[in-house]
Amino acid sequence: MTSPKFDHDRAERAIRELLIAIGEDPDREGLKETPARVARSYAEIAGGLGQSAADVLTTTFDLGHDEMVLVKDIEVWSLCEHHLVPFTGVAHVGYIPSAEGRITGLSKLARLVDVYAKRPQVQERLTTQVADSLVELLGPRGVIVVVECEHLCMTMRGVRKPGAKTITSAVRGQLRDPVTRAEAMSLIVG
Ligand SMILES: Nc1nc2c(ncn2[C@@H]2O[C@H](COP(=O)(O)OP(=O)(O)OP(=O)(O)O)[C@@H](O)[C@H]2O)c(=O)[nH]1
Ligand SMILES: [Zn+2]
């Protein structure tokens, strides 16, 4: 999915400028196609800008299941909005359905993570946006979102601390209750 606002020609021109700015020759053989390639790749890695949570949380079922549902270890590839380099890791998304048992397809939880990951982002906002859109669209009794990522801007440059993991969480409704929260955390950690 590419954002309707994505301007391929402009992205291509910008990458050509960046190559010149770093002292490269954008017309040398190996780089000739690079601006177009990078533009296409940004269309993909920032493709979440073209989507909203409502676009992906389309399928809901009233199964009457009213206990916790948790999808863990959803791979995350996002783009640090400060340095435009990746941050990557996993997200764990759980919820306790509404009293009527309104649930969504499991893949939709992973798609929801992608909607907010595939754009310039900070990890805290990614975490709360996933949690808040579940609250808004499913009306669940509780939500927990935990995201664990390594930020390449802390690994390949700057402070250079490979392996450092940032863990963020957003907890809503009944999952704020210490016992329920502990149960969810034990499923995530276990
Ligand atoms: N809270 C938060 N900070 C982030 C995230 N991604 C990157 N950062 C931080 O954003 C900060 C930007 O700091 P600046 O001082 O403006 O930029 P900088 O000079 O490149 O900083 P250094 O990375 O320390 O070299 C850095 O501390 C990054 O580690 C994120 O998802 N959440
Ligand atoms: Zn960064």
TrEMBL record:
It comes from the Bacteria. SUPFAM superfamilies: Tetrahydrobiopterin biosynthesis enzymes-like. The keyword Zinc applies. Keywords: GTP-binding, Hydrolase, Metal-binding, Nucleotide-binding, One-carbon metabolism, Zinc. Gene3D superfamilies: 1.10.286.10, 3.30.1130.10. Its EC number is 3.5.4.16. InterPro entries: GTP-CH-I_C/QueF, GTP-CH-I_N, GTP_CycHdrlase_I, GTP_CycHdrlase_I_CS, GTP_CycHdrlase_I_dom. PROSITE patterns: GTP_CYCLOHYDROL_1_1, GTP_CYCLOHYDROL_1_2. GO terms for molecular function: GTP binding; GTP cyclohydrolase I activity; zinc ion binding. Pathway: Cofactor biosynthesis; 7,8-dihydroneopterin triphosphate biosynthesis; 7,8-dihydroneopterin triphosphate from GTP: step 1/1. One of its GO terms (cellular component) is cytoplasm. It catalyses: GTP + H2O = 7,8-dihydroneopterin 3'-triphosphate + formate + H(+). It is an enzyme of class 3 (hydrolase). One of its GO terms (biological process) is tetrahydrofolate biosynthetic process. Residues 12-188 form the GTP cyclohydrolase I domain. It holds the Pfam family GTP_cyclohydroI. Zn(2+) binds at C80, H83, C153. The keyword Membrane does not apply. Homopolymer. Belongs to the GTP cyclohydrolase I family. This is GTP cyclohydrolase 1. It comes from Kribbella amoyensis. The lineage of its organism: Bacteria, Bacillati, Actinomycetota, Actinomycetes, Propionibacteriales.
